[in-house]
């Protein structure tokens, strides 16, 4: 499912995947909004289609409005 939302004043497109284990943001968006990023060495996200993606870190406390 595709939903419009905002992070701060930035409009974003939110893709809802009911089979995913975690939420994630594009790294480009994290850099663009200067969101706080705690780097991790082994953080992965299991997508609903069965693919595992490796993340660069965790952004804690990000408020997303839908």
From TrEMBL:
Q: Which InterPro entries match?
A: Peptidase_aspartic_dom_sf
Pfam families (alphabetical): RVP_2
Gene3D superfamilies reported for this sequence: Acid Proteases (2.40.70.10)
Name of this chain's protein: Uncharacterized protein
Native species = Vitis rotundifolia (Muscadine grape)
């Amino acid at each position: 499912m595709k939903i419009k939302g905002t992070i701060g004043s930035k409009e974003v497109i939110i893709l809802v995947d009911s089979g995913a284990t975690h939420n994630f943001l594009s790294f480009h968006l994290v850099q663009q909004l200067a969101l706080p990023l705690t780097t991790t060495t082994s953080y992965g996200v299991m997508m609903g289609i069965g693919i595992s993606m490796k993340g660069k870190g965790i952004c804690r406390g990000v408020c997303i409005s839908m």
